[in-house]
Write a structure and sequence with these properties.
With 160 residues, this protein is mainly alpha-helical. Helices cover 69% and strands 0% of the residues.
């Protein structure tokens, strides 16, 4: 059962994909350009049931170096892919996993306080959760096949 979506609906979804892509790309580049950036503070401030794991990462220099590298370049790759509409589904799922890890590292639960400044007081719902569920909505709409490089790949695959 194929549904037709209006131009406005599709435009809103494509714009959402590009905006989230921009956010990922910006965060990755900002971290890349700051020679002093590390995730150690964020990870060592972790609360919740995975705090031991995140603290271990922060306290193990070789692992922290790999995690920082993957975090920076993962953000950049996901951002570029979302903006360009290239391997969109892979980028969406990767972004959701990364945001879930951020959420689990510092969940906004009652009784948890963090040393890092927050953008406000949250109760269960924060920007990571909202952005993760926005990406989950994009998972069900092939926006890269509407406007993006995935459309070119689809044409080439169909032509073969």
């Amino acid at each position: 059962m194929e549904k037709k979506y209006s131009c406005m609906q599709l435009t809103a979804l494509v714009v959402l994909r590009i905006l989230i892509g921009w956010h990922f790309l910006y965060e990755g580049i900002a971290k890349l350009l700051n020679p002093y950036w590390t995730s150690a503070g964020f990870l060592s401030d972790s609360k919740g049931f995975l705090s031991g794991f995140f603290s271990w990462i922060a306290e193990t220099p070789s692992v922290l170096k790999v995690v920082d590298f993957l975090n920076i370049w993962g953000l950049i790759a996901i951002g570029v892919a979302l903006i360009a509409g290239f391997f969109t589904r892979t980028a969406v799922v990767s972004g959701m996993v990364l945001l879930l890890l951020y959420y689990l590292a510092n969940p906004p639960f009652i009784g948890y306080s963090y040393t890092s400044p927050a953008e406000g007081n949250y109760l269960f719902v924060n920007k990571n959760l909202i952005e993760m569920f926005s990406l989950s909505a994009l998972l069900f709409f092939p926006t890269g096949k509407i406007i993006g490089l995935d459309r070119l790949l689809l044409r080439k695959k169909t032509a073969d």
